[in-house]
Each structure stands twice: as C-alpha cells, then as structure tokens.
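Hello support,

Our group uses your service weekly, and this is the first time we've seen a run hang past the timeout. The protein is Amidase. I'm not sure whether the cause is the sequence or the server load. Input pasted verbatim:
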Amino acid sequence: MTSGPFSGTTLADTVQRLRSGATDPVDLVEEVLDAVAAAQPVLNAFVTVDAEGARKQARAARDQQPTGALHGVPVAVKDIVDTAGVLTTMGSRHFAGHVPERDAVLVRRLRRAGAIVVGKTTTHEFAYGPTGDDTANGPCGNPHDPSRMAGGSSAGSAAAVAAGLVPLAVGTDTGGSVRIPAALCGVTGIRPGIGRIPTDGVFPLSWSLDTVGVLATDVAGTASGWRVLAEGGDVEGPPVTGLRVGLPTGDWFDRLDPVVRARFDAFVEALGRAGAALTRVAVPDAAELHDVYVTVQSAEAVAVHHERLAENADMFGNEVRRRLNAATRVPSYLYARALRRLTAARATAARRFSGLDVLLLPTAPITAPPLHARDTDVGGGWTSPREALLAHNTPWSVLGLPALSMPVAGDGLPVGAQLVGPPGADADLLAVAQAIEEATG
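Update from on-call engineer: The timeout came from a worker crash unrelated to the input. Re-ran successfully.
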C-alpha cells in the first residue's frame, strides 16, 4: 500500500494540527510534494503538480490568520476542472497545452476556504469511462495494488487520498465517477444531488447528469469538503437505532463477486445489530434507468465532442473514439424519449423513499480489476469491467439523487458500500453515513 503524509489520518486531524501550530503549511506542502514525486512513478495519480503555486499559497497561509475551514490544507483537483494558470488537459491530447485563465467556481470556493491546490489529478479521457486507465497521461494505479484500476473517471483524486498524498480531493460524477474510485481505493466520496455544487468551469461530459463531488478518507472529511463546495450547513448524525434502511434487490443487484458479497453482508449484519431497521426493496426499473443513462450520456457526449470528432478524431484515445463513434448512432427520438423518462423519474424520485431514510447497496459488484482488463471474467459473472462498475451507480444518477460510497471493513482489496438519499437530502445523507461509519467501524 502506497503511503504519504496523510496516511492513517483524517482531514479533521490535519485541520487541528494546522490550527494549533503543530504543523506549518509550508512544511506540509513540502512533504506533499516529496510524497507525490515518490508515488508518481507507481500510481500516476497526478497530471500536473503546481509546486511553485502550492509553495506560494503555503507561504501566504502561514503568514495569515485562518480564513476558512480548509486554511492551509493541501488539496488536489481533477484535471477537467479549470484552474487559473495551471495546465488542465481533460486527460486528452486535444488539450495538451491548455491553461485556463480563470478558476472554476468550485476552485474559487476552495481558495476562499484557505485550501492550497497542489495539482491536477488523472482522469479517464474527458471523464468518459469508469476504469481510469485510458488517458493521455497514462493509467492511474490503485494504491492497494498498482497493477489494478483505481476506478474512474476520478481515478487520480481517489488514489491521491487513498495513498495519503492529500487529505481531500475534488472529483466529478456523471454515472459513478466519484463513487466507483472511492469504492475501489477504499475511501469515502459523495456525488451530491444534481445541481448542488456549481459546474461552471468544469468540462462537461453529459450536462443532464454531471455533478461535482469530493473524496476524503472518512465521512467527516467528505462532509467538510461538501460544506465548502456546496456552501452547505452543519452535518449532525442521527442515531443508527431506528434508522430505516432499504436494501435494493432483484437481478440487477444480485450479481456480486463472492468477496464483495461476504464483506457487504457482514456490513449489513453489523448495521442491524446496531439497531437499524433493514427492509428489502425492489427496484424493478433499474435496468430501464441504466438504459436511460446510456442514451442520455451518449447523445450529450457526442454533442460536446462533435467538432473534435469530425476534425481531429485521431487525437482521441482508441477507446473513447470508439465509444463516441458508437454514440453518434443514437437516434434523436431515442434521446428525446430518454430525456422525457429522466424528467418524469426525477419528479417522482422521492416516492421511492416512502418509509425509508436511505438505500444501501454495494457501490460496485466487483473489486478493482487489473489495469486495461476489458472483455474478461472480473468476478460475479461479469465479463465487462465497465458494465460491472457502472451497474449499481447509474440508476441514482438518472434520478438526480445524492449518493455516497464509504469503505467496508475487511482485508484485501477494498469494497465500498453505497448510501443513496432522497432528493435534496445531501446533508441528511452525510449525517446518516457518519452515524453508520461510527456504528460499524
């Protein structure tokens, strides 16, 4: 397991050390830069490290009184998010020399909170894939086993947190791109409800589905990042006793690798012993919602990349180019129907939580596959890593719901548990997750 200065600690620990003077921002940034340099040949979690910019920010933080919740905290930002004066490539040769003039809104919020942006993290090319191993700067390895996927598309952000290189990182999530790498790397990550965090200055994949999320080692750290980016309020956890938890069942959710099944079942049993009320819940339209996701994402991705595909197709990686070419064949009437279904499903999404506080299911039905694995057995009866990694995530993306992945205790490769909350209930979801973490950890 690759480790850095934040291994075995939490974001709260780092903030406390900075506030007490036990840690100096300048020294901390130097530790981060050294750790990133050492880990880079193994993990490739970063595309660009802004060493001089980070040092400048650290000196300013050292000389100022705390200006916000993340004062002096080193953070990493996914490489599809604009950062003024810092290379932002979208994981593609199309943007190999692209340097934005302005920060994205979320980066401005990070800076106002006192965060120090140390660099940009590896993303699947144009965030168009859940594996994180097909990108212009090379694959991102999993800190638990660098020969395996970190997951995507926010691969580098999850890997950087899991390896202890930074205590907090920003990702994006369209169909699972925060939750999947969080699960595969053994960290916590939230996909907020649709529109909760501004996407201004974030390169789009599918505007109907895109969200911005955050990753940290634990729920409290993730909640701190969410509060800064979403400008949200405090998160206070309810007791687990009496918590009403729905467990999605049916063919769509039953194909699990034996390791995932055993670890997740033990997690659910521990939650039951802690006093949660567990109810099995049918989701008969899960496959339909996934199909809506595929249609909407495909059509909108083609709209984003149409000119690049027509004029410079050879600059795309082979996998993304093939997927975009296939997406051009989605008829407009199917896209229109899918959008209509998406709108109707979101309008009635709250009904799915009648008598429930949250839904709970494995984030991914498999553990991290080997890098570049494609059409092969990856466990649980799955022969496509992409299909397996997306399966438990896309329905909630279509519904626009807040969803969070948290680690499940156990040995070996990480397993994630996904909590899904009602519409607009981001803070409640984080509170519930924090209570569950305390009860099962």
